[in-house]
Design a protein that fits this description.
two-stranded antiparallel ribbon, mainly alpha, 3% strand
Amino acid sequence: MTTMTTAELDEIKPVTEYLRSISHGRRRDAFDKLAGQLPVRVFTRVKYAWTLWARREQLPPDHPWHIWLLLAGRGFGKTRVGAEWVRARAESGLSRRIALVARTPHEAESVMINGESGILAVCPPWDKPNWEPTTSDDSPDSKTKCAPGRSNPKTPQTAWTPSSGPSQPSPNSKPASTSGSEKNPFPQIPSPPGRGLG
């Protein structure tokens, strides 16, 4: 994945400055009106400039952070935010390995990778990751996914493999009930005093 060169940034700067001068809610309409007047490469670069289109609350915090929690409802753009953050980290070279964590491998693939706001949807055509589902050599029935840009199925690219991690439930199975005596590997994180979630 690549970032824009200085020349490319200079080429789109007048358009992005103009669009930033317009209120966020009217920016898309203004861009659509400009579309026919812009060279295709400028139009496309501006179209994929996430920081121009994101609402302030969809951008990472300006201060150093370890955990960025997006506690929001349907329609906020959580999947898009995550996909754009992953894209930015990969393009900048700041992250070489990025884990996508979902309830099931199917959800990771259908929402986070191939969804309408997933990684493949937000990446520009000139910089799409090479992602393809593959079968692991460890188990003929298991599915492992290769990381973007990787296509070697002999090296599992998942956060855990079927032989070393939790078993994968079938798509139609219900979660197993617990008696409550099992130790929770993910204890509740208490809210700061006076800042409860309820």
